[in-house]
Design brief:
Elements: E1 9-11, H1 17-40, H2 44-69, E2 72-75, E3 79-84, E4 87-92, E5 99-102, E6 111-113, E7 121-127, E8 131-137, E9 143-147, E10 154-156, H3 161-185, H4 187-195, H5 207-234, H6 238-245, H7 273-292, H8 302-314, H9 316-328, H10 333-352
Parallel strand pairs: 8-10
Antiparallel strand pairs: 1-2, 2-3, 3-4, 5-9, 6-7, 7-8, 9-10
Length: 353
């Protein structure tokens, strides 16, 4: 039976599935291409070795996708638990303010996590190039919550920051009650309390409670200001009453500024899934037609290997590159797809004449 205390709350993390699955999908496609090339193009033991390596890459990519999707965050009484399939990491809470840092926009702070080429941030990082922090950021969120722990501050990108702040506030109160019970159970401290004065020490709010109180106060002030503005707008102004009393002028009409909207056909089109798989379909069509007309070179020859390599680069590899471009550089999707299609057309012209 486990002695683990049940968590106070489970925090839903902000996730971006395209960013999380881009690298595992690339590994799966690369492994599949290696298996197909090893079994169909490379003869003998070497082909089996290449196919085995491809299967290993595919399995590792699949396992990486499962681990990334299983990452979860739990708030306990005195710690933050980051768990995933097959492991976990405990961050004991320490006294200190809980703050919010802006990561996108004009006044954004720079947050880097190692390795920097990954589309997600999980593990050790550096904030503003001056502070070492731990990062849990699975999506490009605009803000993150910095929680003080014994391992350093922990930057959390949660889907609901209010729920995270509320859970941290409850954890801080539970820790304070636990410390009070420990102090009361100590005989020396009980004797000092009985001999001392009966003055009640003022209670100080924690950083989480202060942030929650300020947010509620700001919301109440905004509601009061909105109600006052609504009452003011409901009363007719003297100028409006005078305008209503005057007779309307038919011949005079004040023009209004026309707000022109861009039509739907003129908007910038977003890259669709059909555009991404177009190089793969083109390479498959060229391969199928050449095989049906018996125009494909023998796989054991150098010409056959070069032709297969060209079709793989113009088809599956270009599709993988287009998927990665859509995740990181959407403006380059058309360039990548056009390059793969051009290569496939040249190979098809050389094969079919």
């Amino acid at each position: 039976m486990s002695n683990r205390v049940p968590p106070i709350a489970r925090i839903r993390l902000s996730r971006s599935l395209p960013r999380l699955l881009a690298l595992p999908m690339f590994g799966l496609l690369l492994g599949a291409a290696m298996m197909a090339g090893g079994l169909l193009l490379v003869p003998g033991i070497t082909g089996l070795v290449v196919a085995g390596l491809g299967a290993t890459v595919s399995l590792m990519s699949l396992a990486g996708a499962v681990v990334l999707l299983s990452v979860r965050l739990e708030i306990e009484e005195a710690a933050v638990c980051l768990a995933w399939l097959g492991g976990e990491r405990i961050y004991p809470l320490s006294p200190g303010p809980v703050t919010r840092v802006r990561l996108r926009g004009e006044t954004a702070s720079r947050l880097r996590a190692a390795p920097t080429f990954l589309p997600w941030q999980l593990g050790a990082g550096r904030l503003r190039d001056e502070e070492d922090v731990e990062v849990v950021r699975l999506a490009p969120t605009a803000t993150a919550i910095l929680v003080p722990t014994e391992r350093g501050r922990l930057a959390i990108a949660a889907a609901d920051e209010d729920a995270l702040l509320d859970a941290l506030s409850r954890a801080a109160r539970a820790r304070q009650r636990l410390e009070e019970l420990i102090r009361e159970s100590s005989p020396d401290e009980r004797a000092e309390a009985s001999d001392g004065s009966s003055e009640v020490a003022p209670e100080f709010m924690t950083g989480i409670e202060r942030a929650t109180f300020e947010r509620r106060l700001a919301a109440e002030l905004a509601e009061a200001a909105a109600a006052a503005a609504a009452r003011t707008d409901a009363l007719p102004s003297p100028e409006a009453a005078e305008r209503e009393a005057q007779p309307p002028h038919v011949g005079v009409r004040r023009g209004r500024r026309l707000g022109l909207r861009r039509p739907a056909w003129a908007r910038r089109p977003a890259p669709s899934a059909g555009l991404l798989v177009l190089p793969l379909l083109g390479a498959g069509i060229v391969w199928g037609i050449a095989a049906a007309q018996d125009r494909m070179p023998q796989p054991a020859t150098d010409l056959g290997r070069l032709t297969a390599l060209a079709l793989v680069l113009g088809g599956p590899a270009t599709t993988v590159g287009a998927i990665m471009a859509r995740v990181w550089w959407p403006r380059l999707v058309a360039v990548v797809v056009a390059g793969g299609l051009a290569a496939t057309v040249f190979v098809g012209r050389a094969l079919l004449g």
